[in-house]
Design goal:
By secondary structure, this protein is α+β, with helices and mostly antiparallel strands. It has a 6-stranded antiparallel β-barrel with strand order 3-4-7-6-5-14. Strands 8-9-10-13-12-11 form a 6-stranded antiparallel barrel. Strands 1-2 form a two-stranded antiparallel ribbon. It is built from 5 helices and 14 strands. It has 2 domains: 59 residues, no CATH class; 190 residues, Rod shape-determining protein MreC, domain 1 (Thrombin, subunit H), CATH 2.40.10. Strand 6 and strand 7 form a beta hairpin. The radius of gyration is 33 Å and the shape is elongated.
Length: 279
Amino acid sequence: MRNLIAFFIKHNFLFVFLVLQGLCFVLMLRNRNYQGSRLFNSTNAAVAKAYETSANTKAYFSLREENDRLAKENAILKNYLKSNYAVLPLTEYKKNDTIYKQQYTYIDAKVVNASVNRRSNYLTLNAGSSMGVGRDMAVVHPEGIVGIVKAVSSNYASVMSILHKDVRVNCQLKKDGSYGPLIWDGKDYRYCLLTDIPTHARMKKGDTVITSELSGIFPEGIMVGTVESYERRQNEPFYTVTVKLSVDLKKANHVYIVKNKFKTERDSLEKLSQTQNDD
């Protein structure tokens, strides 16, 4: 206690100065509106900035939940698209009377693992058989096609990326209608090759490439990419088109698994027809 009193006595001039300085500051703010308003505005600006920083921080950490919510919402909305419904004749006698029956349904999923730099690339999704996912289902991104489901467990799915040596997806030029298999040559993950395009096809750089109904897995009209270049290779009667993919598979995060409700029926009929032809 004595040391504290001695400290105050020793530095009494400093403490008196600080008290008087504070008193002057208060009197100045009370009697001069300009200085008071300036301080008030500065304080408000600082507080507002702090609140803004806090809000931005909270928003950043909630992006994952928000993205998940939007993905689920988009999957629900995609199920109501008219393009998911097949037009069926109502009776065989009234050809103009039709009904719509849903052919495609969408299941949202998240990419938990992926590769792009191998010859056979795969993705792992956090959706499996417990959510209705099965083999040979299409996987798409809001910007284009991604791959085909190869194997499933209860909670996960293994997907053959379109950047896989064994994947063939039948695609077509949107304007011209010419179609052929889309393959990956194992070089650049940003590009695939659209082969077997007839030489009479009309196309130019930038033309849109979409999925064809002939693929049997992907719905028709899904974005694939754009024409980067094309050439007629030696001894080939067709064009080989370099397609710049619309999806950056290095960055793909949320995807949709597409279930074709008619696929089993179609596959069974085609298999039966093939067997009968072989006999």
